[in-house]
Amino acid sequence: MDLVGRERELTLLRTQVQAIKDGQFRCVLVGGDPGVGKSRLLAELDDGIRYVRGVCVPSPDAPPLWPWRYVLSALGRPVPEGSGFDLLVRYADELLAAADEPLLVVVDDLQHADPATASLFAHLAALSPARPLGVLGAYRGESSPVQATGPAVARIRLRGLDAAGVGSYLEKLLHRPVPAPVVAELRRRTEGNPHLLAEIVPHLTPADLDGRGDRLPIRWPAEARAEAVARIDALAPGTRRMLATASVIGREFDLAILEKVGAAATPSAAELLAAGGPATPEAHDGIDPLTALDEGVSAGLLTALPGQVYAFDRAVTREVLYESLPARDRALVHEATADALTAFSADVGERGPTAAELAHHLVAAAVLGGDDRLDRAISYSVAAGTTEDVGPHEAAGHFAAAVRLAVRADWPPAALGRLVVALGRARLAVGDLADGTGVLAAAARHARRAGDAELLTQIALSHGPRAGLGDTAPPPDQALVALLREALAGEVADPAPLRARLAVELVGTPEAAPLAETAGDGPEALLALYAVDPRPGYAAAALRAATDPLTECRARLAVAHHQLELGAVAPARRELDEVTRLRLKTPLGRWWSAQAEAHVAILSGDLERAEPLVDAAREIGRGADAHAAALGHLAQLTTLRALQGRLPDLAPALADLDHPAPRPPWLAAAAALVAAHRGESAIAEALLEAALGDERGSLWTSVLLLEVAALVGHAAAAERLTSALSPHAHRWIVIGPAVSSAGPVALVLARAGVDPRRTAGWLELAGTMVAGTPWEVPEARTPGLTRREQEVMELAVGGASAKDIAERLFIGERTVETHLANIYRKLGVRSRIELLALHRP
User: Fold this and answer.
1) Is residue 88 a contact partner of residue 96, using CB atoms and an 8 Å limit?
2) Model's pTM, two decimal places?
3) Residues 23/25/31/34 CA torsion (nearest 10 deg)
4) Most buried residue, 58, 148, 645, 648, by CB count within 10 Å?
5) Rounded distance, CA 617 to CA 637, Å?
6) Band of the pLDDT at 671, cuts 50, 70, 90?
7) What does the pLDDT look like over 717-771, one tens digit per residue?
8) H helices within 366-473, ranges in order?
């Protein structure tokens, strides 16, 4: 598997190797915990340099300088004898003599090095000879056993992978993305250690990895667990108990909190007598917290930090201690910790614990049962889920915990339904569309059982805005339509938002306009009116009335759409730029922003930058609406391929599109255009004929079909489409809610060449609109020729044979001859010789 998350360290290491190749001495010391990736990092150094490796052994019987002895023997150099500093000098001389060409010596497991081995590193670093020699030492632990200094010394400290690194590592390990909550928990509990991750993850089930459950059931590697158990078992029983209590508080903990929690966790006199022993904690290995912590520090299990704060040395140490507590004891300590955190902040006036901290402990304590305990845990879980600084995945986790506990507490349907709504919204916020809608459907069942119309309204509106309009609109959500109608049929205080949302879902039907007109005068109503009847005044008014970033985003896209239609490209681009600057947190908002950024790149002609942006927008959009994201992606890709002159390359994307019926008419038009460019005239004509009969077609659909008709020489269709598009010659072709552009209509009309008398005027009109965009206005072509005939004539005049022309234009040779015959007739010539003479300067 490729190295992940070590780009900075690998670059530094390769820089040192290059210095060695350039004739310089380098000393590199690489440290980190076991399994953090030291060996894997060194394995990347296949850079064409001689490489010799020695290993320090943890045996007191090993002779001094043992790894260096092995290295010299491997290099075919004599092994010096002697003692003291003189011996170090002689070893150094032999190493330098061996470096007649670039040489890298690696000494592994330096934590076991004898003093002389470490001293040789320091001696070479101080000497810093002008030889192509590198000495690299790898060690486990925090502190380096080598005290080398100087300009030739570089130190690399490997820490655990960060969140992005863990996510990438897990994706490569499992061959699929892993939800952010799982990534976060695994990183926290393994400290991002690649070896631990590789050992743990194969034992997790798909259900464990879906990110919706409780604490992951980690099975720790036997070696790591055995090491931790051995160190813990060496402690006094009271210390073990106190450190186990501390493990419940967290990886880092405050002495003052442990004192409060430890007192709560110490057995009472009654409990001790009931157990049949003397009523004194000391008789049962009772121990005060500070003494236990001192023993833990001495054993290397804890690190003392400033401010009477302590930290466990490794995540696995804490995990083993945590799991050593019986379930009931663990729950009691969690509850005592929540009480101690709250009391401590109140007593000393410091910042109180966060809602998430308290929710964590109270949810773990809720296993003890009791209405008060359950209600308290639910309350803090909801508070944690609604905190502004909590991420969407964490919020979903808190609401899921609250729902589970509310079910256990047998909450009434209305109250439970409101919790389920919050969970559904949180699932949608993380981009889990299927699960989010499923959870909201469950909430609707609770609302119906409770007969709560207001709750049903809340559920219906929780689905959020429609993902697209026009050419990129997803199929109508019939389940949502039914839910909106059901909510409207009930007695609700304010039906206006329901009407506005239903109007948008029903755009294109007779019901939409009356619903939008009775939806009030707020921004949602204005956007519903714009969706039904796209007047610029509605969009501008919605932008002025917007009170949140998502509504502002939709309004700005509507304004940009109108400006583009008028050919006002520069103002539209500014609106799209504003969309990309909004702080949009929902999947829909982030997707619209990503689409806007890709659209700006297309409008600016930066096609190289646009390509990855178009693909990135689709990936973001999958969590908002998969169908709308696929349509938006294909719309932008069609524009991009047309500008690149690569329309035949669009075929795979069209074939892969999984879109339910009814499919937007422009898809068939785009497929026909691709077929025409691939020289598949029969397929293109069949698709053209079918699409012409579909009355749902948009302006863009007609534009695509006109290009097809011109390419395949379908005169009747070309004349019909030219006649239909001519009144719109002043417009810019906009796809979806400012999702993408296809240039001026006038430019397409001119290229089709159906009405030669108007071609020059159309080109002049297009020329006023395309400044600063990638759409180019060509010089007026020969009057009377179609676009395809013009292409054939230019190639023929350039000396291309019929076969060459057919290959260049993806058409048959017979089709080329037909085009040439039409060209001769229209230009009044009888042969290619006369055609060449006509175009000779």
Assistant:
1) no
2) 0.78
3) 60
4) 148
5) 11
6) very high
7) 999 999 999 999 999 999 999 999 999 999 999 888 888 788 888 988 999 999 8
8) 371-385, 392-408, 413-429, 433-450, 453-461
